[in-house]
């Protein structure tokens, strides 16, 4: 997350009405609307009402904004996985349900950043790093699936790697249709996805 500027340095502040957070939010909106590769710093400057040269007093580069946005999405998902891995009070099945439920909450809270993450294709070092982190999240989720199978809570006839991809695929599909302020809130969506996914995965339901 961006920190306010102070006497010893830190992130630069934008002009009034355009602080660092505002610049990042508007950049993510523009990247999602036009595509990251199709957006120039000049486009972003016009979106914010800056001159092309003035934009560089607020952000060092377009890739810096991309990195901040992808970190926002990935940090949230990694925190959810870590919390489940460290929760020794319940079994793997309950921890897996916890991950899916809270991943929906992350997506809803950070939908523009997650949308951008899902469109990354590895065209730069920043994007390649983001894809590596996504693969690590998938692997950690698959490990939880395997643990739930071993404890006898999940059916064992579907590969854990496939289960993890399908679970995240269901969660990620929200970026295509969910709109904040609509008729269904985040809690209802989290409950519905968790119920649909795990009623079908529970051991003995074949």
From TrEMBL:
InterPro entries: Homeodomain-like_sf (IPR009057), HTH-type_TetR-like_transc_reg (IPR050109), HTH_TetR (IPR001647), KstR2_TetR_C (IPR041490), Tet_transcr_reg_TetR-rel_C_sf (IPR036271). The keyword Transcription applies. It comes from the Bacteria. Residues 17-77 form the HTH tetR-type domain. Gene3D superfamilies: Homeodomain-like, Tetracycline Repressor, domain 2. The keyword Transmembrane does not apply. Residues 40-59 bind DNA. One of its GO terms (molecular function) is DNA-binding transcription factor activity. Keywords: DNA-binding, Transcription, Transcription regulation. This is AcrR family transcriptional regulator. It comes from Nocardioides panaciterrulae.
